[in-house]
Amino acid sequence: MSIFNSILFDRPENASGAGGSEEPPFFADLNLDQVLAAMTAGRDEYDLKPLFYIPLHDAQAVSYRHEVMHDLEHGAALQTVRDFAQRMREMREHLAQARKLRYKYQRERWHLDAVDIYCQAVSSLTDDMARLDVSSRGLLAFREYLSSYTASADFPSLVSATRKVYDDLATVEYSVHIRGTRVRVSGYDGEPDYSAEVGKTFAKFKEGAAKDYRVGFRDWPDMNHVDARILDLVARLYPGVFQALDDYCTRHQDYLDPAIAAFDREVQFYVAYLEFIERFKRAGLEFCYPVVSARSKEIHAEESFDLALASKLVPGNSAVVCNGFFLRDQDRVLVVSGPNQGGKTTFARMFGQLHYLASLGYPVPGKDARLFLPDRVFTHFEREEDIATLRGKLEDELTRIHEILQRATGDSILIMNESFTSTTLNDALFLGTEVMRRVIQLGLLGVYVTFVDELASLSEATVSMVAAIVPDNPAVRTYKVVRKPADGLAYAAALAEKYGLTYERAKERIPS
User: If we measure between CA atoms, which residue out of 370, 307, 267 comes closest to residue 27?
Assistant: First the structure.
């Protein structure tokens, strides 16, 4: 039988230990926790979140996932996977129900049905996959594995054994005689169906529609003690059939093929994202497959957006503002300044989201993108003061940034948002300069959102970007972040002019 490893990992060693147990600390700052929660809603059974906690650091590994995503995004492959997932979900529901039941033979019948659903799911998937036009290494390898598995001795034997038990159970016929509180079970010996005879007798008296006085039986899964006792008596009448059912359930307790079970889970990593971003595509927003590299730090993105913010805006038909950026040559850090509530933090989150989603092998928001595969992502966002640490806000910020700079390498990404706002302008300039010098020395990529304009021109590695305003009305934000020199003073002057607070306007209002 052919070997199949994973549709998520191009090499077995990459899959070993895959699945982080804890959410990365930067998820909340970048609102990736919100994105992940929306993506995995209704898929708790797959335990997908750990798969999102392990980014890839190799361009070839990312390309492997791009191929699978392309196959699922185009053609009938996605529907094939959805149909398979639905059958497997039914199988798990049967197994879960079997575990809840109290009576042995009823548990065994639910287990038998679960195996039968599995056999049908695998057979249908094999046939459907054979007809699909796929080109990804992952799905081609899985298709080959499926063909090999279903043609091997194990699977046909499972299908045959399952059908044999069903056929044997179909031979079970019995009669139940009820007299008062006494119930007797005996073999069926061709006795007439009295319900049919009674219906036939009274049919001639039927005139038009009549109220149905029949009492319906309950249809929930669990049997009561009378049902169970009758079934035990039936089993005595057909000991061979029920012994065969016992043996079947014991023999096929672990019938689920590990590779197929892994595929069932892993493919949801792709399906969840494709279904999640479909709502944005319908709203006219674009996604692209980024070119990724673990070496080149020349990056760019066009018409990109914050995925978490878009999740809130799109359902209400609100406009999503797209932004872009690029870093070339010696460029390393985007220093973003401008008015409050102008989209600076959203831009910083977008930068981080793009790189992390790219490292998962996903299409990213935007028209076109070239992104870096970092070894680590770090964020330094403003925090509420925590009295448990017995540190002031500034001390806490310094402690956190010190820990980050101790752990970061030249292949890391750092996103700092409104750091050192709790101190004076001079102190913020001094601290920001020291941090930026260390960042530049490391050579890592990042975004620094700040109210200190001087940091934007600190070195050749810093690139100034500014949250733009409407030129004729500086109180109105465009939420566009553009590459231009910091102009905080110009913005303040424009506001002063708008509200009549310039020196000349104020002087006009003061009596001489």
Answer: 307
Q: Structure tokens of 119?
A: 């056999």
**Cα–Cα distance for residue pair 479/501, rounded to 1 Å:** 25
Letter for the amino acid at 494? A
Q: What percent of the chain has pLDDT over 70?
A: 89
Domain range for residue 469? 283-509
User: What pLDDT shows up at residue 389?
Assistant: 53
Asked whether residue 361 is domain-assigned, the answer is yes
The pLDDT tens digits of the residues spanning 373-398 come to 999 999 998 765 555 554 667 888 88
| Contact in structure between 298 and 328 (CB atoms under 8 Å) | yes
Nearest to 344 by CA among 470, 499, 465: 465
- Taken in order 125, 130, 135, 141, the sign of the CA dihedral is positive
Task: Indicate which CATH number applies to the domain containing 488.
Answer: 3.40.50.300
Residues β-bridged to residue 380: 416
* 366 and 417 share one domain: yes
Among residues 372, 335, 328, the alpha carbon closest in space to that of 455 is found at 335
Distances (CA, A) of 450 to 131, 177, 178, 382, 497: 56, 86, 85, 11, 24
Q: Whose CA is closest to 372, among 352, 389, 387? A: 352
Cβ pair 69, 85 in contact under 8 A: no
Do both 258 and 337 map to the same domain?
no
Query: Domain total for the chain?
Result: 2
